[in-house]
Specification:
- Chain A: It is a multi-pass membrane protein.
- Chain A: This is ATP synthase subunit c.
- Chain A: InterPro entries: ATP_synth_F0_csu (IPR000454), ATP_synth_F0_csu_sf (IPR038662), ATPase_proteolipid_c-like_dom (IPR002379), F/V-ATP_Csub_sf (IPR035921).
- Chain A: One of its GO terms (molecular function) is hydrolase activity.
- Chain A: It comes from Bradyrhizobium valentinum.
- The complex is a heterodimer.
- Chain A has one domain: F1FO ATP Synthase.
- Chain A is 86% helix and 0% strand.
- Chain A has four helices and no strands.
- The longest helix of chain A has 27 residues.
- Chain A is elongated, with a radius of gyration of 18 Å.
- The two termini of chain A are 16 Å apart.
- By secondary structure, chain B is mostly helical.
- Chain B has one domain.
- Chain B has seven helices and two strands; from the N terminus they run E-E-H-H-H-H-H-H-H.
- Chain B has a two-stranded antiparallel sheet with strand order 1-2.
- Chain B is globular, with a radius of gyration of 22 Å.
- Classes of the chains: A mainly alpha, B mainly alpha.
- At the A-B interface, helix 4 of A face helix 2, helix 5 and helix 7 of B.
Chain lengths: 76, 249
């Protein structure tokens, strides 16, 4: 296989990891919304925790995007 | 017709200041937009007046102050307020430069990893140095969570130490990758409009309304992301500083 083709395929495979981050972010926001509907008065106090959980989860998806970007744009 | 979504991130020297060895020290478009971000923040915070009954402009400045201050108080406690100048500067610099970067044909500073790494390392070393200065060796208790059974403690400590040193990586890459990916997506969708029009003629320009509408929607999403990433950067800084102020889980 051509090395350039292998790099492109590898970039595509690396992006699969972002699916996991998508599931995680969906679970976080979904659970926050469910809890906020049950107890709206407590929702405002947990906004910081929501954003923190979102940021930590999203970082893992961003790492796999980073691998894809490195494969695509950094000459090896 | 070829789209080049990476071209917008090129750093071009505007004029040369001097030389150190073989390196040219130049004033680039990146430096220009850094100055613009600082100038806009200064205009907002210094030019807003000190009236007892605030006008619109002064209210905006007070809202940004109160927003950052309440974030610090709720995550790092009132002791964290001594770091207010640092966190406020970081938040305003990132937020203003992200928002300026959304305007077409401008340059986004935070889409370059060297800028975000510099900011993240500043936070990392502030936490490390202040934590050791304030708590001495007790600072290293953040690596030893309490209430963990002794036989899994080495593994947990290993993970804690690893995650501590991965903090500047995730802190900087998150901001940089979000900005980079968002701006590339915008450029690619905007490129579809021109590609359809050039290749299909009148029908293509009509069909190009679809990607055009999507570009407008994506710009709105980017507006949200630009603010959210600045907020995430600020709140993570608060949480890391909280470790230095109150070590031990």
């Amino acid at each position: 296989m051509e090395p350039a083709a292998a790099k492109l395929i590898g970039a595509g495979i690396a992006c699969i990891g972002m699916g996991g981050a998508g599931v995680g972010v969906g679970i976080i926001f979904g659970n926050y919304l469910a809890a906020a509907v049950r107890n709206p008065s407590a929702a405002q106090g947990q906004f910081g925790n929501l954003i923190f959980g979102f940021a930590v989860t999203e970082a893992l998806g961003i790492f796999s995007l980073l691998i894809a970007l490195l494969l695509l744009f950094v000459p090896l | 017709m070829k789209i080049d979504p990476i071209h917008q991130f090129n750093i071009e020297p505007l004029f040369t200041i001097g030389h150190i060895g073989n390196q040219t020290i130049a004033f680039t478009n990146s430096s220009l937009y850094m100055f613009i971000a600082v100038a806009l923040t200064a205009v907002l915070m210094l030019g807003s007046g000190r009236q007892l009954v605030p006008g619109r402009f002064q209210s905006m400045a007070e809202i940004t102050y109160e927003f950052v201050a309440s974030t610090i108080r709720s995550t790092a406690g009132s002791e964290g307020m001594k770091f207010f100048p640092l966190i406020f500067s970081l938040f305003m610099f990132i937020c203003v430069s992200n928002l300026v970067g959304i305007i077409p044909y401008t340059f986004t500073i935070s889409s370059h990893i060297i800028v975000t790494v510099a900011l993240a390392l500043l936070v990392f070393f502030t936490v490390l140095i202040y934590g050791i200065y304030k708590n001495g060796l007790k600072f290293f208790k953040i690596f030893v969570p309490s209430g963990v059974p002794i036989y899994v403690l080495p593994l947990v400590m290993f993970i804690e130490i690893l995650s501590f040193f991965l903090r500047p990586v995730s802190h900087s890459v998150r901001l940089f990758a979000n900005m980079l990916a968002g701006h590339i997506a915008l450029k690619v969708f905007a490129g579809f409009v021109a590609m359809l029009g050039v290749s299909l003629g009148a029908l293509g320009w009509f069909g190009g309304m679809l990607p055009l509408a999507l570009t407008v929607a994506l710009t709105a999403l980017e507006l949200l992301v630009a603010f959210l990433q600045a907020y995430v950067f600020a709140i993570l800084t608060c949480i890391y500083l909280n470790d230095a102020i109150h070590p031990g889980h």
